[in-house]
Amino acid sequence: MTKIRDYNMNGTIILGVDAGYGNYKTARCCFPTSVSRSDQPPIFTRNYLEYEGSYYTIGEGHKDFVAEKSMDDDNYIITLAAIAKELNARGLSTAKIHLAVGLPLKWVQTQRDSFREYMMQNRHVDYKYAGRRYLIDIVDCTVMPQCYAAIAESLPDFKGMHMVADIGNGTMNVMILNNGKASESKSWTVRLGVGECFKVIRDHILDRKAEELPMEIIENYLRCGDTKVGGEYQQLMEEAAKSYVDKIFAELKAHGYNPNLMKLYVMGGGAKVVELVGSYDSDNVTFNHDIRANAKGYEYFCYMKLRRQKAMASAG
Q: Pairing state of beta strands 132-145 and 124-129?
């Protein structure tokens, strides 16, 4: 698991937020990606955000897939919640922040500017989360490539040829590294995230048992590999998950994966199900189950970028 470090530059906190389709992650926190708005505070939870006269319940369920995150107002609200959670974990409620965020590999180039503007729509934000007031100044925002940022600090360890697969809830990011060096022509974003596996399991149970399996049971299986339910249901879920993982490997091979010529590095929320039901040579496959790796990587990547810029400015 990637070590947690705190990065600061000129009194500004570099704070990473991984805006996933299934979960939002920071270096210290992870919670489901969902938000519901109301004009009154919710009754049964304190896990809500109060902002500009509205109340937003956070983290109960998941959001639908939206390809361009800056076109979805909910992402901004959930980002504020993520910032609050991370600051609370650090014992802070007031801070100057340089946001470090990311986009899928193939979307960074076309969406970077709009996503940065979206995240910086308010330079000063005053809001409450879980009953605590937060006063933050968003000084700047850096948008980086998912997957690559998560492994940026350990690139020297990727000797020879590697394929890296970062399987999130909505997308899978794939890249081929040659001695730790990436190439844009060998980087892809595919709509084959864990959300697809969820649907395959749900539909398989529905077809075989004529009943709807509760969402929580499927999520527990995908997260832990065991749901403590009857053996037949467990078997059916494994069958469905296996068909999904077979699609994953077929997609990887379509993009150049050859287990005889390169090693495979699998990360993200989908790494668990691939490890459980996939067919692979364990000597040539590495699994990283730290689902906060991208958020931590954004902070490191952003800090190193800002440090280089500062050094160049001083030299100039």
A: antiparallel
Q: What is the pTM of this model?
A: 0.91
Q: How do residues 28-66 score in pLDDT, each as one tens digit? A: 999 998 899 999 999 888 889 999 999 999 987 665 556
The CA distance from 260 to 110, in Å, is 35
Query: Residue 73 in 3-state DSSP?
Result: helix
Q: Is the pLDDT of residue 201 over 60?
A: yes
Q: Which amino acid is at 232?
A: E
Same domain, 68 and 126: yes
List C-alpha distances in Å: 11 to 7, 17, 97, 130: 10, 19, 9, 26
Are 120 and 166 members of one domain?
no
Range of the domain at 60: 7-145+294-315
Q: Both 89 and 182 in a single domain?
A: no
Q: pLDDT, tens digit, for every residue of 144-197? A: 999 999 999 999 999 999 999 999 999 999 999 999 999 989 999 999 999 999
Same domain, 117 and 165: no
My answer on whether 96 and 175 are in the same domain is no
DSSP 181-231: EEEEEEEEEES--HHHHHHHHHHHHHHHHSSPPPHHHHHHHHHHS--S--H
